[in-house]
Specification:
It is built from 6 helices and 28 strands. It is mainly beta.
């Protein structure tokens, strides 16, 4: 009988240049292959990505310089890592060798999240954090047990450089934070979900005094609570969830990516309540309610829609809605409230006026 023999060997890449990918502020992705081009990215905006390449298991940053024939920087990186120099010292050292000014402040390496380390520790400090991972399991196995109370974040800024999924297995509260995409125009998908189908038993995630900018917030099987928040160029999309929005603004959502529905608030198979909410200036429907129940009180829905297409400010599809003490007005090229088939809308003390087509 001949046994299989498996050989393990380390592959020497030699002078092979491995391109390093960067995402510019306009969301354009570029791959860099030579030293002159990488100088553009040795600045504060790209610190998280440079750290990722520096700390990668394959030593991608060192290999990049070695492949380009720069043994000095490659040796500097490897010797610095062996001697225990900080990430900040190494990146600043590389910058100097490239003829650039040092740009990395001490301690910033602790602001980058590459894995499921304590999200609680990240959010409760008053720093800017860069999420470089795409999946977090909110469970006692890898997140602090006391994560349930995340309060007073001092407007901590969480910059999402890539789509992020939060698997919610227990309650979570985030207060006084800011979630933003890396680029000034591009949208990042932030998905929060659980496996609990029964809406009365779903875990609750609460955002208070928190801002969202350029985010597509997708909620599946959760209890979502939003209080005193500002959602700018942001969409909330729910499926089989309970949602409460109060004292908040939802405005100026104009997606840069293809979406099946570009409504600012999109409710599907959900139970929704809105109180003292302003929904305005969104490119498509302000609110689209599909196979859901919705209660709107003390709110203002206005100036939603655009001059190219006709989107109702409030669109009801197979839904039951109750509206009280609310205004729906100044729609752009649209109807104020459109009640589709198999829908019911009860209104009390509601003003619907100055919409381009019908009020209701």
């Amino acid at each position: 009988m001949i046994n299989d023999i498996i050989f393990f060997m380390e592959i020497d890449l030699g002078r092979v240049v491995i391109g390093l990918e960067f995402t510019k502020e306009n969301a354009e992705k570029v791959k860099i292959f030579n030293i002159d081009d990488i100088k553009e990215f040795f600045n504060k905006k790209y610190i998280p990505v440079l750290m990722k390449y520096l700390n990668s298991d394959d030593g991608l940053l060192a290999q990049f310089f070695y492949g380009n024939g720069n043994d000095e920087i490659k040796d500097f990186i490897e010797q610095s890592q062996k001697s225990g120099k900080s990430v900040e010292e190494i990146l600043n050292g590389i910058a100097i060798k490239l003829g650039l000014e040092p740009f990395v402040e001490e301690g910033i390496s602790n602001q980058c999240i590459y894995n499921s380390k304590s999200l609680y520790e990240a959010i409760r400090s008053s720093k800017t954090y860069y999420m470089l991972i795409d999946n977090i399991d909110l469970d006692t196995d890898n997140i602090d047990v006391d994560i349930y109370k995340m309060i007073d974040c001092n407007k901590n800024k969480i910059i999402l450089r890539k789509d992020l999924t939060l698997n919610l297995n227990k309650g979570l509260e985030i207060q006084n934070a800011l979630f933003s995409s890396f680029g000034s125009e591009d949208h990042i998908i932030f998905t929060i979900k659980s496996n609990v189908k029964n809406q009365s038993q779903q875990p609750k995630i609460s955002f208070k005094d928190t801002n969202f900018q350029n985010i597509i917030l997708i909620c599946e099987n959760i209890n979502l609570y939003i209080e005193n928040c500002v959602l700018k160029n942001t969409q909330i999309s729910t499926n089989n969830s309970s949602i409460m929005i109060s004292g908040s603004d939802v405005s100026n959502f104009n997606p840069t990516t293809d979406l099946s529905d570009s409504s600012a608030l999109l409710f599907l198979n959900s139970k929704c309540e809105m109180d003292s909410v302003k929904v305005f200036g969104n490119y498509s429907n302000g609110i689209n309610c599909k196979s859901s129940t919705l209660s709107i009180t003390n709110s203002d829905i206005f100036k939603n829609g655009n001059n190219k297409d006709s989107y109702s400010q409030l669109l009801l599809e197979k839904s039951q809605v109750n509206i009280q003490n609310t205004q729906v007005h100044d729609g752009v090229n649209n109807t104020g409230i459109y009640i589709g088939d198999n829908s019911k809308c009860d209104i009390d003390s509601v003003k619907v006026f100055e919409n381009y087509y019908n009020g209701i």
